[in-house]
TrEMBL record:
Organism whose genome encodes this protein: Streptomyces paludis
Name recorded for this polypeptide: Uncharacterized protein
Superkingdom, taxonomy of origin: Bacteria
């Protein structure tokens, strides 16, 4: 998985855009939805198409947002959308029509496959996920069951037979720390900007911000100092960090803010377009959108940190 995405040759942005998926033109969206209908039909299921989902005769709904983003980001272009749709339809129906893993797997096997996931508030049903822990404004941590073809986010009801939430979270975090780092890229720019990007196909790559100490230790061989780190998790397959050691945090902050905002757009599993200050496990948001403009907003603590580092690095 590359760091910077290059889209395939597609309809110009000047062509009329689809209301539900603006990264598609109207014609591309029609092609995409037609491929989705055919994919479900090949599985023996006739569906009714809507802007962002399909439904079957039993009233089951299948959202299309994630699949649309996957198709949009595949650099092979529309020629593979049919294959992607067929794979998606098969996986969804096998998951929905088969027995629940919560009923077939023993409790210890479920605990061994538990992982914490960071998701946006838009993806959360607060009534079903009352245990969800806030990790930053608009971001929450939930527990998920990792399965061969899918990831099942577990509700309060699903977790109840498995034990106490705190112990389940501890087990999930230990499982997260044990995951390998699939890929790593270093971003370096003129002016001192430098940050690391962890990339991978795992659905938990970005969620490793919850175990940042172990990730930084694995990647750099060093511990995070008391001043902490900058982090960004634009979508589920990327985690960026800059360990704060000197005044290079200033140019790195601006570059990471732009990186997060760009990576968040039109991606499957989008999490956050912002950059955060990680300190002792607490996340403080440092960037924000003001209309179409990106701005950096720092509080008193971070401002004092910048002044201290700048003064220390200033030539005598």
């Amino acid at each position: 998985m590359g760091l910077f995405r290059r889209g395939p040759k597609r309809d110009s942005r000047d062509t009329p855009r689809d209301p539900a998926f603006s990264f598609f033109s109207v014609d591309e969206a029609a092609l995409f939805r037609g491929q989705v209908r055919e994919a479900f039909a090949e599985q023996g299921l006739e569906v009714t198409l809507y802007a962002d989902m399909v439904t079957d005769s039993a009233g089951r709904q299948f959202g299309l947002g994630n699949l649309a983003a996957v198709c949009h980001n595949d650099d092979r272009g529309p020629r593979v959308w049919g294959d992607l749709a067929r794979r998606h339809a098969g996986m969804v129906l096998r998951t929905m029509d088969g027995p629940s893993a919560l009923e077939t797997l023993p409790p210890e096997r479920i605990r061994a496959q538990l992982y914490p996931r960071v998701i946006s508030e838009d993806s959360l049903d607060p009534q079903a996920f009352g245990y969800a822990r806030s990790v930053a404004p608009g971001l929450y941590e939930v527990l998920a069951l990792d399965l061969p073809e899918s990831v099942m986010m577990l509700t309060d009801e699903a977790l109840e037979p498995l034990g106490e939430i705190r112990q389940l979270r501890d087990r999930a975090l230990n499982n997260l720390r044990g995951l390998p780092v699939e890929g790593r890229e270093t971003v370096k720019e003129a002016g001192g900007t430098r940050f690391e990007v962890i990339v991978g196909d795992s659905f938990y790559t970005a969620s490793r911000v919850l175990a940042l100490e172990s990730v930084v230790r694995h990647v750099t061989g060093e511990w995070i100092p008391p001043d902490g780190a900058l982090v960004a998790m634009p979508f589920r397959h990327q985690l960026a960090f800059h360990v704060i050691r000197d005044a290079t945090v200033i140019p790195s902050l601006g570059s990471m803010a732009a990186f997060a905002a760009s990576g968040f757009e039109d991606t499957p599993g989008a999490i956050s377009p912002y950059v955060y200050w990680w300190r002792g496990g607490t996340l403080t948001q440092l960037s924000a959108k003001d209309g179409d403009e990106l701005r950096i907003t720092v509080g008193e603590d971070f401002h004092e940190l910048l002044e201290r580092l700048t003064a220390r690095d200033r030539p005598e």
